[in-house]
Design a protein that fits this description.
Blueprint (H helix, E strand, L loop, with lengths): L13 H33 L2 H6 L7 H9 L1
Helix pairs in contact: 1-3
């Protein structure tokens, strides 16, 4: 037989703290993604047109490739 404990109210502020923590983690994830995108774009734009064609890209496609990678 399972023992059921009575429900207790959550301590004051627990929900608010949870929302703040979720916001901070989400913000961190967005900042990391933004930084990685910026580093990748910088690296790709430093390549010559010949080097880009070796990996199957043109200069015009850099942003679209980064957009696809983010999704």
């Amino acid at each position: 037989m399972a023992i059921m404990e009575p429900r207790r109210p959550v301590p004051f502020g627990t929900i608010a703290i949870h929302h703040v923590v979720d916001f901070v983690y989400g913000l961190r994830e967005r900042l990391v993604a933004w930084r990685n995108r910026r580093i990748t774009r910088s690296a790709l734009t430093r390549l010559s047109d010949h080097e880009l064609s070796d990996i199957g890209l043109t200069r015009d496609e850099i942003d679209s490739v980064l957009d696809k990678r983010d999704h």
